[in-house]
Amino acid sequence: MLGPVILAASRSDRMRRLVSAAPVTKPVVDRFIPGETVDQIVPIVRELTDQGLELTMDVVGEDITTPAQAEAARDAYLELIDRLKPLELGTRAEMSVKLSMFGQALDGGHELALGNVRPVVEAAAEIGTTVTLDAEDHTTLDSMFAIHEELRKDFPQTGCVIQAYLFRTEADARRLADSGSRVRLVKGAYKEPAEVAYQQRHEIDKAYVRILRTLMEGEGYPMIGSHDPRLISIGQELARTAGRKLDEYEFQMLYGIRGDEHLRLAAEGHRMRVYTAYGTDWYGYFMRRLAEKPANLRFFARSMVSKG
């Protein structure tokens, strides 16, 4: 029940100031966000890929209010891609982008976001990798899917994210599976109204399994975004039933959560991709990680008590 409260706090400037000022915050944030700059994150990329893991990189940032900020977000990704080029990792290190960072919510935001994300997709393709468009709240999804479809005309490996808790997602999954898209399936991490989304965990889990079956039986490339051991096992079984080889789907988990499981899946031959965020504007990302899983909140609370 705390999840919606935490998600509401993620939009509060007052809570942002309180959490940011707390002495214990930085060491806890470091668990989920291992760096603020490209110089800090490149060694992390080397470390994880040396362990047989793959990455999807997110330059954190939200609440873009000007076109100049959107262009700065674009340039941050271009800098990251330029720094990854000498590592020659190809698709072992891809990008995840939120179109809100590229100006989607501004006047003329759809075209602005498309214009800003296209150079990132082009630059990623030049170093042999790709970009996945992250899903945000339900009001942005029609724009996101339209941009995804447009980008795939020239860059067919461009991926997108769908969220199991939304009622619309089963239909979206069927369309994307038929088109051969790369699709990351997650449960969902935004506060959505009951008119558009399941509210109970068991309903979300059941929807997740139905949608994952659609993706596994389709023509695309499923990316299983979950830390839930039961859903991971179900995903493996669905892949076997669909006759998929180990390189025809992958698992994705967040940096800082279930690290031992990352290594176990990779050791078994699975493609295991770690969602790795970095940057200075970490607050919204951090609060959603707390909201997603009670263990994350307990970890933060224990740290506050022990450090206080």
UniProtKB/TrEMBL annotation:
EC class name: oxidoreductase
The reaction(s) this protein catalyses: L-proline + a quinone = (S)-1-pyrroline-5-carboxylate + a quinol + H(+)
Keyword entries, A-Z: FAD, Flavoprotein, Nucleotide-binding, Oxidoreductase, Proline metabolism
Binding site for FAD: 163, 187-189, 226-227
Record-listed substrate binding positions: 98, 288-289
Cofactor names: FAD
Key word Electron transport present: no
Recorded GO MF terms: nucleotide binding; proline dehydrogenase activity
Cofactor descriptive note: Binds 1 FAD per subunit.
Example GO biological process: L-proline catabolic process to L-glutamate
Pathway(s) it belongs to: Amino-acid degradation; L-proline degradation into L-glutamate; L-glutamate from L-proline: step 1/2
Record domain Proline dehydrogenase: where: 45-301
E.C. designation(s): 1.5.5.2
Entry protein name: proline dehydrogenase
Organism of origin: Streptomyces coelicoflavus
